[in-house]
Structure formats: structure tokens, C-alpha cells
Design goal:
By secondary structure, the chain is α+β, with helices and mostly antiparallel strands. The chain has two domains: about 60 residues, Ribosomal Protein L9, domain 1 (3-Layer(aba) Sandwich); about 100 residues, Up-down Bundle (Methane Monooxygenase Hydroxylase, Chain G, domain 1). The chain is built from eight helices and five strands; from the N terminus they run H-E-E-E-E-H-E-H-H-H-H-H-H. The protein starts with a helix and ends with a helix.
Amino acid sequence: MNIDKIEKVHSVGHRLKDSKITVTRDFKFNVAGTKTAGTQGEVINIPQWIGKILSENKLATLDSPDMITELKQALSKEKMVGEYQISTLDPHFYIKLKESMKELNRDDFDKVESMMLELFRMRRGKLVKIADSIKLNSELYNKLTVEESIFYKTIHENSVEFEKQIRGDLNEQSSN
């Protein structure tokens, strides 16, 4: 399975989800029969992609989560849960983080990227160990991002196939 394609689909889905905006200037618009209006000071739910356009045009502020804080918390939790446990991340964690990183200056980007890679490498190591021993179950699936669940399934399938290749026809020999 191609992670890029899955990530693109989930990115679109994420941008279609509602997010809160605070209107900074009154606006009204009608696009393709969809009417939207806002009054200064009003807080409304609106699809994220529209909120981003309004924010870029200084008509509203997009109330988005502070992904750098979420990254620091995720990294801290991951260190605490131990070597064979994995903490829960939002399925779109990396998608949201990468989106918010686009807004950072070079120095901040480098620092955040370093933390993201530390978290990624820590989780990747744990996922390889866990995927080698158990099949993905719903409890574990609910802790993973969309990218990690694809990675997990790939590792598990490759591990099972590798074991079959190493064992060869030993099972046939032992039954005789």
C-alpha cells in the first residue's frame, strides 16, 4: 500500500472537517450555491479549508490546535509508556503537524522537525517489534496514525512471509 496516496486522501478528509473560526471582519459570500456569512466577533464552525482561506484573507482567525505543544506531549508520553507499549496519537497527527510546520520559520522548522523525527523513530522501533509478534487488533489500531497502520500491516505481512520462507517445508517433514 502506498502511504503517499493514503495520506493525500486523509489530508483531503481532514481539510473537509469542521474547525472553529473567530470572525474578525464581517463577510458574506456565495460559492456554487453555498452561502456563508459571518459577523465580527462571532465564533462559527466551518470546513477547515474555508477557514484557512478566510484566515489568509484576514477575515477570520482559524482556531487550530497548537501542534508543537501536541508534539511535545506526544514525545513525552511515548517515552513514558515503555519499550513494548505505544501511546495513542490522533489518526491525522502527522498530517496536521506537517501542515502547521509549513507556517514556521527555518530555525523553528528545524527544531520541530527534529522532535517529530525523534517521535517517529521511537514509534517506528516499537511498531517493528510489536508487528513482528502480533496481528493488528482494534485496540492497537486506535492508537496509530493512518501512516503507522499501513506501516504496521506491511511489517507484519513481511514478517509472516519471511518466517514461512525460513521454515520452508519443515512442517511437511515433521508430519511424516
